[in-house]
Amino acid sequence: MLKTTGLFVLTALAEIVGCFLPYLWLRKDGPSWLLIPAVVSLGLFVWLLTLHPAASGRVYAAYGGVYVATALVWLRVVDDIKPTALDWLGAGVVLLGMSIIVFGWRNG
Predict the structure, then answer these.
(1) C-alpha–C-alpha distance, residues 13 and 29, integer Å
(2) pLDDT in tens, 25-77
(3) What distance in Å separates the CA atoms of residue 8 and residue 11, rounded to the nearest whole number?
(4) Is residue 91 a contact partner of residue 72, using CB atoms and an 8 Å limit?
(5) Are the C-beta atoms of residues 11 and 48 closer than 8 Å to each other?
(6) What single-letter DSSP state applies at residue 80?
(7) 101 with 58: CB under 8 angstroms?
(8) Which of 106, 16, 20, 19 is nearest to 59 (CA)?
(9) pLDDT tens-digit readout, 62-73
(10) In the chain, where the domains are located
């Protein structure tokens, strides 16, 4: 479970970076060369999703929970906005869902 979660966190970071860099370009007047690492990061995101042994729909469903939690950490670290207790409660709920899905594919 720890290896799977770690892989999901790396996948989420690749997706977030791949979306954040174009955001910087479009909304914060960042340089257009940011689109090059964004494309590389999104390619890495797609490749990382293929490394899981489960059916793609299960991987996407379980990944969603980790993405939510990782996005809240990004909110705190990069955007310097403190998530609320309800943000963390929601992340806990979706991580519980992720755990149930992953446990099911490992034991099903």
Answers:
(1) 22
(2) 999 999 999 999 999 999 999 999 899 878 888 888 889 999 999 999 999 99
(3) 5
(4) yes
(5) yes
(6) -
(7) yes
(8) 106
(9) 899 999 999 999
(10) 2-107
Q: Is 7 left (phi over 0), alpha (psi -120 to 50) or beta?
A: alpha
Q: How far apart are CA 69 and CA 73, in angstroms?
A: 7
Cβ neighbours of residue 46 closer than 8 Å, sequence gap 6 or more: none
- Find the radius of gyration of the CA atoms of the chain: 15
60 to 47, 71, 77, 98: CA distances (angstroms): 13, 16, 25, 10
Q: Which two tokens stand for residue 78?
A: 């990069």
Alpha carbons 10 and 105: distance in angstroms, whole number: 20
CA distance 66 to 21: 20
Two tokens at 71? Answer: 């996005």
- Residue 31 CA, distance from chain mean position: 24
